[in-house]
Amino acid sequence: MHIIEPTTPEQFEKYYRLRFETLRQPWGQPQGSEQAADDATATHAMMVTNAGDAIGVCRVHLSTPQEAQVRFMGIRSDMQGKKLGDQLMQYVEQRAREMGATNIMLHARENAVNFYRRNGYQVVEESYLLFGSIQHYKMAKQL
């Protein structure tokens, strides 16, 4: 397994499909809802098998010159619990440092808060409710 930044249409198709399957489809959201208006300016990371199958996705972008934001973190359900998310987080945090960020933030789903805590993030505040049922928490970390 290794992490790539998708560049080809085929890679982006796998990237967005996994983003949809892990973060939107389970809540009955429509195809296309996995894409964001600012995706074109973000850095995308995709963990792939040696055969090129997507098993993890994440993206990072600068929200200010000093602060990066992580969004759309998802690991294929059959690959969860194997510390693959930790590797993706290390990758996007390094990319954020390369972009000049000194801190990084995200909005974590309630069931992911402990994962981010293990990766050095602290809860700042309760943030928003997604799809009327998924509580999110703003979390941050110094880089």
Q: Quickly count the domains.
A: 1
Oligomer: single chain
Largest sheet: 7 strands, mixed
CATH topology value: Aminopeptidase
Which of globular, elongated, flat, extended, rod-shaped describes the shape? globular
Unreliable parts: none
Report the average pLDDT across residues: 94
Q: Any idea what the CATH superfamily is called?
A: Gcn5-related N-acetyltransferase (GNAT)
CATH-derived architecture: 3-Layer(aba) Sandwich
Summarize the amount of helix as a percent range.
25-40%
- Total number of beta strands: 7
Radius of gyration (Å): 14 Å
- Strands side by side in the biggest sheet: 1-2-3-4-5-7-6
CATH C-level label:
Alpha Beta
Alpha-beta content class:
alpha+beta
Distance between the termini: 25 Å
Element pattern in H and E = EHEEEHEHEE
**Number of distinct helices:** 3
Strand content: 35-45%
Summarize the structure.
The chain has 143 residues and is α+β, with helices and mostly antiparallel strands. The protein has helices at residues 9-23, 84-98, 113-118; strands at 2-4, 43-48, 54-62, 67-75, 103-109, 122-130, 134-142.
What does this structure look like?
- The protein has 143 residues and is an alpha+beta fold.
- It has a single domain, classed as Gcn5-related N-acetyltransferase (GNAT) (Aminopeptidase, 3-Layer(aba) Sandwich), CATH 3.40.630.30.
- The protein is built from 3 helices and 7 strands; from the N terminus they run E-H-E-E-E-H-E-H-E-E.
- It has a 7-stranded mixed β-sheet with strand order 1-2-3-4-5-7-6, with helices on both faces.
- A hairpin with a 3-residue loop joins strand 6 and strand 7.
- The longest helix is centred in the first third of the chain and has 15 residues.
- The protein starts with a strand and ends with a strand.
